[in-house]
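pinging the channel bc i need a second pair of eyes. not urgent but kinda urgent?? the chain im working w is below, pasted from the shared doc
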Amino acid sequence: MILGVLSLGSLKYIVFNSLIGEIGLVWDKNEVIKQIVLPHVQTKQFSYSSLQYKGVLHETNPSEYIHKIMSDIKNIIMGNDNIHFEDDQLDLDVLTDFQRVVLLKQNEIPYGQVTTYKKLADMIGKPRSARPVANVLSSNPFPLIIPCHRTVRSDWNIGGYAGTKDGYFKQFILENEGIQFEDGVVKKEYRYQCEDLEVKNVL
């Protein structure tokens, strides 16, 4: 989905290297994050066509604040558990109510734990919405910051990531967080128990 054309220069982007390849970061004039673009799984390269916005200008000299965000994203991939982003650092206004509920609940899944699409649907009080939940996570505009990599298939297999069927990046990041797998399945000690989490109204 390509969002509406913005005034020239209102959005900027930069591409930087990480352990999984080239990552794109898009922000507005207030330095609120609009989108994070993961690299192509095979080439590990950034694709301009993956930007959800038109008229985005390439920034070559970002502020210290943007440098800090880039560094934090790289540290998330490396498995650092001390990285935290506030909701007001992300442009959540572009989300539907359902997308917001799913992504904010996803953001509560703790470091070193994994849940499933079905369990996440249970947590938002919509137990029959596992597929819509999965669709929201597949189009998450803020991967890594909102850790959709911490949600897997109902059989605890890794599944796809960021709209692709390839879970390579997903497993790489989870393993850096200390998650262990057995024959491609998340081990029981790393499975987040949604019964222990109170459903909150985040609308």
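so The helical segments are 64-78, 97-106, 117-123, 130-138, 168-176. and The radius of gyration is 17 Å. — does that match what u expected or am i reading it wrong
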